[in-house]
Design goal:
Elements: E1 2-6, E2 9-13, E3 33-38, E4 48-55, E5 58-65, E6 68-73, E7 77-81, E8 87-92, H1 98-116, E9 120-122, E10 124-129, E11 132-137, H2 144-153, E12 157-160, E13 164-169, E14 172-176, E15 182-184, H3 186-192, E16 198-199, E17 207-209, E18 223-231, H4 243-248, H5 259-275, E19 277-281, H6 290-299, H7 302-305
Parallel strand pairs: 2-3, 3-8, 11-18, 18-19
Antiparallel strand pairs: 1-2, 4-5, 5-6, 6-7, 7-8, 9-13, 10-11, 10-12, 13-14, 14-18, 15-17, 16-17
């Protein structure tokens, strides 16, 4: 059995997850340990499907069968979760590479597990600067990972790439590191002048890189969240919504049918929007002066950079 840390939970898996840092030899006996099971299994029937998102090749649908949650990525893998999201069974599709199943587990399913277990998890990347953690929030393709890499190249520590765990404590909001990895499109490697990474999944051109191999730093402990940077929709749609609305649209959720949980989540997101400095970064990804924006965010405290145009 392999054990790892992911966010503030323990992960115990019968198969190695090389993207994660190894933990202790024997996982602690606690409800904060998530068991990952692997192998073929008959899928439960009938499944009542209640939610779906995305388009092929990256789409997903969510359902329930008895006391199990079913998360299916068509033609790729199915994940079966017990009611408390304590056990996750991975059922891979035919001829699907291990790297793809691990990617779906780490970047999609485990954030859902954390959310179902009471954590606030944003679809966001984040870096730690001398002035606190800066988080980039936005839809797929908005440029979150590229900004994380650009800031890391200027000395910031990587906190998260695609899913950020946040916790409100007595001294404010804390960002909890997920795992040290960044996934980038091939042109981003050329733009930043860094060696290309390794495949992250067989259906995408995005490549994964370990920040440590580039001499970049990674955070290992919870750190204060200083700023949220909201990125424009990659389709060019300019946000006209309140900050809380934009944040809520980027929250990981497993059971969207639970109305009471939805209300609690809304209030947590509203508190986050009220408590933390927010900057909107407009414009298309390809039009940004990447390193100039990164330099502003890394070198200036929130009360200064929050009041200025990041592109100026």
């Amino acid at each position: 059995m392999f054990t790892y840390r992911f966010g503030d939970l323990w992960i115990a898996s019968a198969h190695a997850l090389p993207e994660l840092s190894a933990g202790v030899a024997t996982p602690p006996v606690t409800d904060e340990c998530i068991l990952i099971e692997w192998g073929q299994a008959a899928l439960p029937t009938p499944v009542t499907w209640y939610h779906s998102w995305g388009e092929a090749p990256m789409s997903a649908r969510f359902g329930v069968c008895g006391d199990q949650f079913v998360v299916e990525f068509p033609d790729l893998a199915v994940f079966l979760l017990d009611a408390t999201a304590t056990t996750v069974r991975v059922v891979m599709g035919p001829n699907v590479p291990d790297v793809t199943a691990r990617h779906l587990l780490l970047n999609q399913v485990l954030p859902l597990v954390l959310s179902h277990r009471g954590r606030l998890v944003l679809h966001a990347g984040a870096v730690a600067t001398a002035h606190g953690v800066v988080a980039f929030v936005g839809a797929t393709g908005a440029g979150k990972s590229t900004l994380v890499a650009a800031c890391a190249s200027l000395g910031a520590a990587v906190v998260a790439d695609d899913s950020l765990v946040l916790e409100r404590r007595s001294l404010g909001w804390m960002a909890i590191p997920a795992y040290p990895s960044i996934r980038l499109w091939p042109d981003a490697f050329a733009q930043l002048g860094i060696p290309a990474g390794v495949p992250s999944a067989h259906y995408t051109e995005k490549l994964r890189v370990d920040p440590g191999t580039l001499g970049w730093r990674s955070a290992s402990e919870p750190l204060p969240l200083a700023r949220l940077v909201l990125l424009d929709d990659p389709k060019g749609e300019v946000a006209q919504h309140p900050v809380a609305h934009d944040l809520l649209s980027q929250v990981f959720r497993l059971d969207t049918r639970d109305m009471e949980a939805s209300v609690r989540l809304f209030h947590r997101v509203a508190d986050l929007a009220r408590d933390v400095a927010v900057t909107r970064l407009s414009g298309a990804v390809d039009d940004r002066d990447l390193l100039k924006v990164a330099a502003r965010l890394v070198r200036h405290p929130p009360d200064v950079a929050g009041a200025m145009d990041l592109e100026s």
